[in-house]
Amino acid sequence: MTPRRGRTLTSLRLLAALGGTLWTAATVGGARAPEEALHRWSRRLLKHLGVTADLTGPIPEGAPLWVSNHLSWLDPVVFLALRPSGALAKLEVAGYPLVGAGARLAGLRFVDRDNPFSRATALRALARDLGRGRSFLLFPEGTTTSGQGLAPLREGGLRMAYRLGIPVLPFRLDSPDRHYPWTGDATLMPHLRALAEAGATHVAVTPGPRLHPQDYPDADAFVAALRSHLQGS
């Protein structure tokens, strides 16, 4: 067996084992079991894939909603490893091999980005969850990029936070490793193989300041401030 094939098989076995762990953890425990399951699973997955999240500063408290630019399918895992939280993910994640079913059981919410009804339904669910005091994670670009610039934002969740008076904490993700971004028509398994072959991967996580809607005259100003932090400017 070649070293490359060995590393690929190791990654697949790891993902299968972690998928089973997520499935098991998501189906037992109390009311917070799904979020705690995602949190524990995310920490284990990053460790075993050799991905290190480098925080560039302290994370301000008191923001139920975290938002970030989007580079990779691993971005939610990075943030869910930092705190138990719900997350809004693209519909394709539900079909990922081995982990999709466990993610559904663990409470991950999915949205079809090209379906207006799906987006509206997801926003209503997000508002309900935040109103109940649940922490949540959102990627307003709605797609991954290479990190060079910012894709046009889907502003619905940000404007909803403004209307509801919910503080938001913006983050900026960057990685010095070219294999970390997952863009275009790339599929999961080749990307997982690239991570395994790299051996070590770093992603810088830069928290911005906690932004409160009451400090902005309107939703446009609030969204503009969030966009500025997501761009890293």
UniProtKB/TrEMBL annotation:
Keywords on record: Acyltransferase, Lipid biosynthesis, Lipid metabolism, Phospholipid biosynthesis, Phospholipid metabolism, Signal, Transferase
Signal peptide (from-to): 1-25
Phospholipid/glycerol acyltransferase domain: residues covered: 64-176
GO BP terms: phosphatidic acid biosynthetic process
Record bears the keyword Glycoprotein: no
Biochemical pathway: Lipid metabolism
SUPFAM superfamilies: Glycerol-3-phosphate (1)-acyltransferase
GO MF annotation list: 1-acylglycerol-3-phosphate O-acyltransferase activity
Pfam family, one: Acyltransferase
InterPro entries (UniProt xref): Plipid/glycerol_acylTrfase
Transmembrane regions: none
UniProt-recorded name of the protein: 1-acyl-sn-glycerol-3-phosphate acyltransferase
Provenance organism: Mesoterricola sediminis
Source taxonomy: Bacteria, Pseudomonadati, Acidobacteriota, Holophagae, Holophagales
